[in-house]
Every structure is written in structure tokens, then in C-alpha cells.
Amino acid sequence: MNLIEEFNEYRAKMNEKVLDSDNKVIKRIFNLDTNAYAEGSLDIKTKEMLGLACSMVLRCDDCIKYHLGKCHEVGINKTEIFEVFSIATLIGGTIVIPHLRRATEYWEQLENQ
Questions:
Q1: Given this model, what pLDDT does residue 80 score?
Q2: What's the pTM value of the predicted model, to 2 decimals?
Q3: Ranges for the Carboxymuconolactone decarboxylase-like domain (predicted)?
């Protein structure tokens, strides 16, 4: 199983378990997250690139993978992704570099699927 399949299957399985708890606060947080990335004054591509940059600065590999997948889905190209990577690394500093490496590997798999 490749990185993308493994991540997506695990994420879906665990999201289902989390939401099955029927906790109102958790459901509202998930809903807020979904609505925040919907089309609005900013287009979806821009929101996903913002989400990716913030996730890299915060060093959340799961979030990085999620936003890379969404960026790929909405048609962001390799040149655009590497501009996002450059901004995130500039803002986050050299501590972001290990996440940049894993993000690059994940992006390559997205491009090759």
C-alpha cells in the first residue's frame, strides 16, 4: 500500500470512529473545518494553499498530507506547490525542512498516481 492509500484509509476509518462518538463539540469542530475551506471570498485553491503553508509551519504531517491531497484535487501544480513550500519554510524556519522532505515525497506520489 502506498503513502496516499495508507493515509486516506486510516484518516477515513478514524474520522468515522471519532464522529461515531456523537460528541456535539467534536461534530461542530469538524463542520467548522469543512465550511472554512468552502468557496467564499477566497477561492478553494487559495484556501488549500493557506492550509498547507500553515500546516507546514505548525509541523503537522497529517495536515500537510491532507492539504497536499486537496491541492492536487483542485489542480494546483508542482510550481505552485513549491512556492507554498518556500513560503512555509521561510516563515517556519529550518525546523520545517524534515516536513518539507516528506511533503515532497507525498506530492511526488500524488503526481504519479
A1: 98
A2: 0.94
A3: 27-105
